[in-house]
Amino acid sequence: MSLFSHEALDSLVATYGYFEVALGVGPKSMGLPIPGETILVVAAVYAATHAGLNIWLIVLAASAGAIIGDNWGYWLGSRFGYPLLLRFGPKLGLSEGRIKVGQYLAAQRRWCR
Question: Alpha-carbon distance 29 to 45, whole Å?
Answer without folding.
Answer: 21
